Amino acid sequence: MIAIFYENGDPSVKKDRTEWFDCACNSYDHAIRFSLTHWNEGPELTVEAVFPQYLPWYKRCWIALKYIFKRDSAGISVYDTWIMKKEDAERLQSLLQAFTKP
Ligand SMILES: [Zn+2]
């Protein structure tokens, strides 16, 4: 089923929507957020991920120095894994349908 939200009962104005999805591992540090925004040019879907890196202060200083002098990618990974929960699939599917069938 497609969830379509209208503001003030006006079917020509579609409501923006944000959905958070926690990782199946239940870590508080793994989460994905999908945001559906309706612009005049059409809908836009953005994806944001939260994977904080907690390093000791001296490692963060070393990374900062390498970053300042553009030595390399500073040796840190900005990627991690997010595993979708099966029960969230329908909610994501609903959001994608609202994006593709405005
Ligand atoms: Zn996880």
List the helices and strands and how they pair.
Elements (H helix, E strand, L loop, with lengths): L5 E2 L2 E5 L2 E6 L8 E9 L2 E9 L6 H12 L20 H12 L2
Antiparallel strand pairs: 1-2, 3-4, 4-5
The protein binds zinc ion.
Strand content: 25-35%
Helix/strand-derived category reads alpha+beta
Distance between the termini: 14 Å
Strand order of the largest sheet: 3-4-5
The value of Rg in angstroms is 19 Å
What is the tally of helical segments?
2
- Main sheet properties: 3 strands, antiparallel
Q: How would you describe the shape?
A: elongated
Question: What is the helix fraction of residues, given as a range?
Answer: 10-25%
DSSP strand tally? 5
Q: Ranges with pLDDT <50 over ≥5 residues?
A: none
Mean pLDDT: 81
Unique bound compounds: zinc ion
Whole-number tally of structural domains:
1
> Order of SSEs, N→C?
EEEEEHH
